[in-house]
Amino acid sequence: MVVDRNKEKFLNELREYLSVLEEQEQEDILAEYAQHIDMKMQKGLSEEDAIRDFGSVKELAAEILAAYHVDSKHAMSVGRRGIWPAAPHRYAGGTGLQGADKHKNGVLEAGVGQKEEEVSEGIFRRMGRWFCQAFSGTAKWIRNGFDRIREGCSQLFGRNRELNEPQDALMGVGEEGMSGQSVGGADIGDGFAGGPLCDAGVRSAEGGGNGADICSTEAGRDSTGVWSAEISRNSASGMSAGDYGSALRGKGRSLQGKRKDTRIRTKEKGKGIMGEFSGAIGRGTVMVWKWFLDCCIFGLRLFWNMGWLLFSLLCAGMAIILLMGIGAMVVLMCSGYSFMGILVLGLGGMLCFGALAAGAFGMMIPNKRANGSSRKEKSNGEVHYEQTT
Amino acid sequence: MNPQFKKGVLELIVLESVRRKDMYGYELVEEVSEVIDVNEGTIYPLLKRLTNEHYFETYLRESSEGPPRKYYHLTAAGILYLEKLTAEWKEFQDRVNGFIRGEEES
């Protein structure tokens, strides 16, 4: 029984030294040594002698690990028991074995060729990021161009001609309001023709000295953080131009820096039947043109989106195929084949195709308004615009 | 024998032994031990390395004397490698022998 314990001790010690290897490999090696000892015992040797012929267990384990291209000193850092004495360092040799913490030939190769993998992975990652950025930038640029064209067309043919007055217009309104007190009502009325806006909770009146409509504009910000502007036609509020200028005094500055969407509807009164008829024809023509343009834009967008969608799907499919290939390579590498180069190539290809797919997907034009606002027209002619900030 | 010499030719002897006949570990150790006196512990790691480098392939064969034995078989890559090693060994041997003979003649 003492003999058995020696054999067991030898095998256990060897197992501890080989703990960096896969379990199956350890069993395989130990079974071979156990069989060798048994055969020597059958030849008449004692087990102690049979074990002694192997020499130092530590040196034996070091040679076995060297056969797996594992540095025995480094094995301490990844071994279960940590019985190797020296500090870990990278194994410089090897036959094309690369990759940290990966299995090849049943070996847990920690730290082997790690630097090379980091360099190659960094290059591919950078390339993938660059491709993604380039495609995203191009997609954004093209999309912005289309948005501008669409916005221009909608401003040219659409009803919302005075929509989306920029911040400059708001500032202009404020300045006009400030100057209204000194220059008189006519100037104030002209100033508001470009887009009368008020700050939240401020009521203003446009006093047209030449019989024009008097409008009241309420601009407010509701409690949900949605900017809204309501323009309604009211009767004259009785405010004179001077009062109006006074009301706006001090508010003009507060308008600066705030962004609102508003629309003013002007209605011309006093037109005759012919005028109304010609106006109706004009509006009908504009509507037809707008409808035609919308159809064209819709068709172009559909064609554009479908093309990029197909391309994106194609690239995504290729990336998936490459991913499957990488999986197969990993399986083959675990079986002992050296496919590291092809694996890195496949990884890079997968990243490239993935970036292409993402870029192509980003090229698609979403179906939304250019300014992100939604328009609601009420039955009484009021137009309500909401824009989420 | 000089251990450095043994270390250099051990691979060649193992490959040649397996080329002649498929062998299991213990059998191979005995075969090699007839040529050079070598530590048994160095044979198994060498077999493992040559297997990992695809010069050997292994298979199990039942044995009447105990558990199945793992036999080593030389692959095509192993045959090419053996031929290369043999040629290198012959060239090395010729050069060293020529050098020694030249020294002796002079």
Give the assembly state of these chains: heterodimer
Tally the structural domains of chain A: 3
Helix count of chain B equals 4
Strand order of the largest sheet of chain A: 3-4-5-7-6
Shape designation of chain A? rod-shaped
Strand content of chain A: 5-15%
Q: Which series of helices and strands of chain B comes N to C?
A: HEHHEEH
Instruction: State the share of residues found in helices of chain B, binned by percent.
Output: 55-70%
Percent of residues in helices of chain A: 55-70%
Overall radius of gyration of chain B:
16 Å
Strand order of the largest sheet of chain B: 1-3-2
Number of strands of chain A: 7
- CA-to-CA gap between the ends of chain A? 84 Å
CATH T-level fold name of chain B? Arc Repressor Mutant, subunit A
What is Rg of chain A? Answer: 40 Å
Describe what you observe in this structure:
The complex is a heterodimer of chains A (389) and B (106). Chain A is of the alpha+beta class. Chain A is built from 12 helices and 7 strands. Helix content of chain A is 58%, strand content 9%. In chain A, α6 (114-157) runs parallel beside α12 (340-363) and α11 (273-334) runs antiparallel to α12 (340-363). Chain A is rod-shaped and about 130 Å long. Chain B has a single domain (3-105), classed as Orthogonal Bundle (Arc Repressor Mutant, subunit A). Chain B has helices at 3-20, 25-35, 40-52, 76-105, and strands at residues 23-24, 56-63, 66-74. Chain B has a 3-stranded antiparallel sheet. In chain B, α1 crosses α2, α1 (3-20) packs across α4 and α2 crosses α3. Chain B is elongated and about 60 Å long. The model of chain B has no long low-confidence stretch (mean pLDDT 89). Classes of the chains: A alpha+beta (389), B alpha+beta (106). The interface between A and B is medium-sized, with 23 and 20 residues.
